[in-house]
Amino acid sequence: xxxxxxxxxxxxxxxxxxVISIGLTLVFGVMSIVNFAQAEFLMIGMYVGYYGWxxxxxxxxxxxxxxxxxxxVIGVLIQRFLIERVIHAPDVAQIFLxxxxxxxxxxxxxxxxxxxxxxxxxxxxxxxxxxxxxxxGVPYLFAFAVSGVVGILLWAFxxxxxxxxxxxxxxxxxxxxxxxxxxxxxxxxxxxGLGVGLTALGGSVILPYYTASPTSGGQFVVLMFTxxxxxxxxxxxxxxxxxxxVGVIQSVSTLVMPIxxxxxxxxxxxxxxxxxxxxxxxxxx
Amino acid sequence: MKLxxxxxxxxxxxxxxxxxxLPWLLPEQGYVLRVACLVLLFAAMSQAWNxxxxxxxxxxxxxxxxxxxxxxxxxxxxxHFGLSPWLGLVAAGLVGAALAALISLPTMKLKGHYxxxxxxxxxxxxxxxxxxxxxxxxxxxxxxxxxxxxxFALMQFQSLRPYFYIMxxxxxxxxxxxxxxxxxxxxxxxxxxxxxxxxxxxxxxxxAAAKLVASTISGGLIAMLGVLYAQFQFFFDPDTAFxxxxxxxxxxxxxxxxxxxxxxxxxxxxxxxxxxEEATNAYLSSHAAGLSQIVFGAILIAVVILQPxxxxxLWKPRRR
Lengths: 285, 320
Fold this sequence. Notes:
The structure holds 2 protein chains of 2 kinds. By secondary structure, chain A is mainly α. Chain A has a domain at 16-119 and 126-214. Chain A has helices at residues 2-31, 38-56, 60-81, 91-113, 138-160, 162-172, 174-179, 184-205, 221-231, 236-256, 262-276; strands spanning 128-131, 134-137. In chain A, a hairpin with a 2-residue loop joins strand 1 (128-131) and strand 2. In chain A, helix 6 (162-172) crosses helix 8 (184-205), helix 9 (221-231) runs parallel beside helix 11 (262-276) and helix 10 (236-256) crosses helix 11 (262-276). In chain B, helix 3 crosses helix 14 (264-284) and helix 13 packs across helix 14 (264-284). Chain B starts with a helix and ends in a 14-residue tail after the last helix. By secondary structure, chain B is mainly alpha-helical. In chain B, 74% of the residues lie in helices and 1% in strands. Chain B is built from 15 helices and 2 strands. Chain B has helices at 3-6, 9-25, 31-56, 63-81, 85-107, 112-132, 134-137, 161-183, 185-195, 197-202, 207-233, 238-241, 244-258, 264-284, 291-306, and strands at residues 143-144, 235-236. Chain B has a domain at 33-243. A two-stranded antiparallel ribbon of chain B has the order 1-2. Chains A and B meet through helix 4, helix 9 and helix 11 of A and helix 5, helix 6, helix 13 and helix 15 of B.
């Protein structure tokens, strides 16, 4: 029963992990860039959710679309003026450009918002449902539900809209997409904006059970990479699977080891995954 | 050795002579000499990173893992067994080399982004372990090097001058090691595998062994530098000794700014970066914490966009 409870908790949290990590995998798929600064957008989303609640009394879940919008704009600008310039540069430039962004964004938040932890109060924060002996926290359930809706919307976007199809085409073969008249610079901008927007959206959604601080993003860096590497870097469906798997691993690991070591379990899984199957668990080869 | 080969060493000898005199021109407990010590230390750390990253192209983001392990190894040996940090250097070197060899096994085959990610996770894992294993490390509150009668035996001095010379010696050692490896057969193998791993392997280069040796030396050296850091700072905690931004990224940035894979790169980078950081800290931190880090990140972004091969290439655009 304890195990089942841990698995359920893990799945609920994992749904959000999937959404915040999809952006990372989407950007890699479209332009083969690993964005080390991705987790900082989670932090940005948290602050948007927090200030929306503080100033306008907006529930962080309703603030989530605003977080998405703001991060989308920032993302497009970053892609347009920074990332685009290293698309064909050596690894060292690509890696350290986004590492530099990580440092700038984290410290910008420190300067603008201060180092104190900020959290919201909602009516449902401490409520829980009891289903057949299992306890399900309402904020976790809400966050999971939003993640599910967002996942479906994203799927529809990639499947049915022109720009979504162009994005998938670019991911499959950039040169071919270009020759078919797709503006792949535009596609890359939308992909990057969408990617960081989804992560920011996730940041706002988890605010009812999390605290915002300038280092909130940094705590998710390895977690997000574990999610996408488990599912296969570049695979959106893989990120969903990876997110759920990481949620469960984290949650179940607390049954056998102290909670501070929760992330250590993740690091070990991550390094082992990279060593054994860097292409992801779902990949056919 | 022929005179013609020695000629290019003349400016180096002059530089070295200037460095030997420098501490006597500055107040022995002054701020400037302190920054100068840090410049030398970070140049050495960056050079140690350069051995693995610059020569074989494996861009590590986890060298803080070895560095912190070295700092803790010597300090714990000093606290519990009264072992001199000079012997602690040896122990730390062995621990660092062993860790580097161990982490190389699963990460050796990874390239580019994947290698950076795996090493990042390693560094962070070491930080988490140091924070949670309180009974050994003292946990998040940190650890102090016990104060003793100042003297050479326990590597503790009141004046900054001895530290300056120790850091200078450490920098010279790392530079010589880097240079020797680069010009050796191992260096050629590393360059071959950096440029084209598959081609190198098909020509009979044991790429795995070459990478393993380079990263083991690199990890051992930076762990030894962790000992110097501990003796210099007297106090550290897991979040500073195993810091991602403060150690792993910073030493990479220093090498990148100067020029990855060159002997002079880390030196140029350290001379530029650390004083800039110190200055922004001194002038800006009174206004807001974090501003100097923004400057640090912005420099990193600017350099990789403008000249990803480092400043060295600005005035030497066509090497060979």
